[in-house]
Amino acid sequence: ETGVTQSPTHLIKTRGQQVTLRCSSQSGHNTVSWYQQALGQGPQFIFQYYREEENGRGNFPPRFSGLQFPNYSSELNVNALELDDSALYLCASSSGPKQTQYFGPGTRLLVL
Amino acid sequence: KQEVTQIPAALSVPEGENLVLNCSFTDSAIYNLQWFRQDPGKGLTSLLLIQSSQREQTSGRLNASLDKSSGRSTLYIAASQPGDSATYLCDRRPGGTSYGKLTFGQGTILTVHP
Questions:
Q1: What's the mean pLDDT in A87-99?
Q2: Phi-psi region for residue B98, left (φ > 0), alpha (ψ -120 to 50) or beta?
Q3: β-strand partners of B22
Q4: CA dihedral A51, A52, A54, A55 (to 10 degrees)
Q5: Interface contact B49, partner A, CB < 8 A
Q6: Cβ pair B42:A2 closer than 8 A
Q7: Does the beta carbon of B2 lie under 8 angstroms from any beta carbon of chain A?
Q8: What are phi and psi of B82, to 5 degrees?
Q9: Measuring CA to CA, which residue among B3, B1, B11 is closest to residue B88?
Q10: Euclidean distance between CA atoms A28 and A94, whole angstroms
């Protein structure tokens, strides 16, 4: 167990809807990174938050957005859901942007 | 273009065999390389982390090596057990300002038969 928790564990949405996924970082960690993992693929980096600021972004459209709160927990928001957004969404926390990342169990999103 | 490639994509072996999983990357300017294990539908568990200044790391039956010049890392699993069955992922953390962006391979699916 890494101490990183994610909610919800599973979610079903329909195309066009919006979704918010949540991540609680491990105690003492100030950095959260989000990844999308499609079935049979490796995780793809979405973005990273460090001390409440976005600290890097992968090749995802603007409808993927995020927040980090003063307690360093984080949210991933996805607007205008598409079928291809169906995936396992992983968050990872670390004690700094360059430090080892510890992953949560993920949220599995299904878009119908 | 795939930045991180893992070979083989899948591996099925009887219990007790020694295994080698390969990870290659196109950009040798790395900060570190990490091997993870992922059980079906679960998150990632870190196995070994190799800093760019290191050549290898060992933990129990696992040994990981790093050769930056050739852009390769190898995960060696000794005396495999059915409990080792999982997907193994390697990730490269780049240097410079992109250090937060881990780049994963597609993984090797390992099945160890009793």
A1: 90
A2: alpha
A3: B7, B74
A4: 0
A5: yes
A6: no
A7: no
A8: -55, -30
A9: B11
A10: 8
Q: Which two tokens stand for residue A87?
A: 């995936």
Answer whether B102 touches A (CB < 8 Å): yes
DSSP state of B16: T
**Tens-place pLDDT, residues B22-40:** 999 887 778 788 999 999 8
Three-state DSSP class for A106? coil
Structure confidence by residue, pLDDT tens digits, A27-82: 999 999 999 999 888 899 999 999 999 988 989 999 999 999 999 999 999 999 99
Cα gap B77→A73, rounded to integer Å = 36
Q: Is the peptide bond before A8 cis (omega within 30 degrees of 0)?
A: yes
Percent of chain A topping pLDDT 70: 98
Secondary structure (3-state) at A109: strand
* Structure confidence at residue B30 (pLDDT): 80
User: How far apart, in whole angstroms, are the C-alpha atoms of residue A2 and residue B30?
Assistant: 25
User: CA B38 to CA A95: how far, in whole Å?
Assistant: 22
Decide if A42 and B98 are in contact by the 8 Å CB cutoff: no
Q: What per-residue confidence (pLDDT) applies to A101? A: 86
The secondary structure of A7-34 as a DSSP string is: E-SEEEE-TT--EEEEEEPPTT--EEEE
Q: How far apart are the first and last CA of chain A?
A: 32
Six token digits for residue A30: 């100030």
| pLDDT at residue A2, rounded to an integer | 64
